Amino acid sequence: MVNALGRHILAEVHGCDFDLLNDVEKVEEIMVNAALEAGAEIREVVFHKFSPQGVSGVVVISESHLAIHTWPELGYAAVDVFTCGERVNPWDACNYLAKGFRAKSVDARETRRGTMYSTPQKEAVNL
Amino acid sequence: MVNALGRHILAEVHGCDFDLLNDVEKVEEIMVNAALEAGAEIREVVFHKFSPQGVSGVVVISESHLAIHTWPELGYAAVDVFTCGERVNPWDACNYLAKGFRAKSVDARETRRGTMYSTPQKEAVNL
Lengths: 127, 127
Known about the structure:
Two copies of one chain form a homodimer.
Chain A: E1 6-14, H1 18-21, H2 24-37, E2 42-49, E3 55-61, E4 64-71, E5 76-84, H3 90-100, E6 105-113
């Protein structure tokens, strides 16, 4: 596996209810809880409701960020989960939010960010 | 070209000065101006300075978002420019910020988001 500074999941979330994707408070709650589920430390939370429909929001975490943009009329959300370091697994957040949004399908792929740089190696202890 | 709801550029920005990548006000200024350069409508701006170094921040725009995470000690920043619709070109923002950060190199690639859905076709007029 290539050493990298960060892991970035781009998730295409399909088949969700209009009302859920259009409820800014629920969308924020699911995204914040997804970050917490992965053990991330939350720094900033900003969400915005669009007219006539749609929600955009970002959860800035110490380990990078989660972002979402929803198209309620299509039952679709574009979601990003970007984490740095070894402590937090972005797939924990991704799996949580897929359930939270009751998605019929999720097409998610992971991209490595900062691959020119090595992550610090853990010290070999008691080997 | 595949129809898509959004265009998402993931940019690996290398060879920047430590002091610039560690200056939260300058990083915010460059990212906000990059959004404006592309003609985006800014909705929310949140930036955070980490100790001992590093900046994370997001500019939420009507057309989606811009995000950045900097590693000043490596001269590196991971940048996202995600835009929806035909009006805003994410490459305008990407090119602007590459200059703003005086990057020695930028490895940027565009990913289409929401490719299951067609963007509205413009009407053919006077053909």
